[in-house]
Amino acid sequence: MSANKTHWEKVFTTKLSNEVSWFKPHLHISLEMIANAAPPTSAAIIDVGGGDSTLIVDLLQSGYFNVTVLDISTTALQRAKTRLGDQADKVRWLEADITQAVFPANSYQLWHDRAAFHFLTDPGSRDAYIELCTNALAPGGTLILATFAQDGPEKCSGLPTMRYSPRDLEQHFGPSFHLVETRSELHTTPAAKIQSFVYCRFTKLSN
After folding, report:
1. Residue 43: which of 138, 134, 184 has the closest Cα?
2. Is residue 109 classed exposed, middle or buried when 0-12, 13-18 and 19+ CB atoms within 10 A define those classes?
3. CA atoms lying within 13 Å on the CB side of residue 118
4. For residue 26, what pLDDT band results from cuts at 50, 70 and 90?
5. How confident is the model at residue 180 (pLDDT cuts 50, 70, 90)?
6. What confidence score (pLDDT) does residue 189 get?
7. 178 vs 20, residue with greater confidence
8. Would you tell me the crossing angle of helices 3-14 and 74-84 to the nearest 10 degrees?
9. Percent of the chain with pLDDT over 90
10. What mean pLDDT do residues 187-206 have?
11. C-alpha to C-alpha distance for 57 and 30, rounded to whole angstroms
12. CA–CA distances in Å: residue 27 to residues 78, 133, 146, 204
């Protein structure tokens, strides 16, 4: 078991779903950006780092039926399955480190991440993520990426983080993506602390 996986298993085995700092009953900004992108309900959607997120519940309730949740933590994925009950069978569950995952080209029409990218402090890991996302997202598809903003926390869940502006993210993802929409959020954690997030919606232009 990698050190990264060990860390996240510890987080999810020692805190309840509504005790982790990023918990929200509904990811309203993500849902609004998905609605703005207007993918068909048949669109292949992946939620990266979404193991214990509530987003999958809202996606299924909105009629999406070709959805994948990827997370490094077995415990996080099991929590999400438990939350969904009988509907868990409608979801594809992937237990993997996103920097080491393998997807066929053009696998997804929408890629969502509110949990993983800002923890990639190593340039090699960031490059691996960007390459994977660029390859796996079909041309014309949507990337919705939420990270800690420039005034966001320098550490979260005991790990250092990266902080970004929309321009930073635009530069990282390069000429294959067009920035369509940005939003800011001041998220109140269960411990009543404020975390500053930035959300960006991109359109994939080419492979």
Report:
1. 138
2. buried
3. 31
4. confident
5. very high
6. 83
7. 178
8. 40
9. 78
10. 91
11. 13
12. 20, 21, 11, 22
Sequence-distant (≥ 6) Cβ neighbours of residue 97 within 8 angstroms: 2, 4, 5, 72
pTM of the model: 0.94
C-alpha span between 159 and 117 (Å, rounded)? 13
User: Rounded CA gap, 102 and 132, in Å?
Assistant: 7
d(C-alpha 110, C-alpha 203), whole Å: 9
Average pLDDT over residues 71-98: 94
- Half-sphere exposure at residue 61, Cβ-oriented, CA atoms within 13 angstroms: 8
158, amino acid identity: G
Domains of the chain: 3-11+23-100+107-204 (3.40.50.150)
Given this model, what pLDDT does residue 21 score? 65
Worst-scoring range by mean pLDDT, 30-34, 44-48, 149-153, 192-196?
192-196
Q: Tokens 């066929």 appear where?
A: 104
In the chain, which ranges are E strands?
45-48, 67-71, 91-95, 108-113, 137-148, 155-156, 159-160, 177-188, 194-204
User: Dihedral of CA 82/4/50/135: which sign?
Assistant: negative
Length of the chain: 207
Taking the mean position of all CA atoms in its chain, how far away is CA 6? Answer: 20
Instruction: Tell me which residue of 84, 28, 35 sits closest to 60, measured CA to CA.
Output: 84
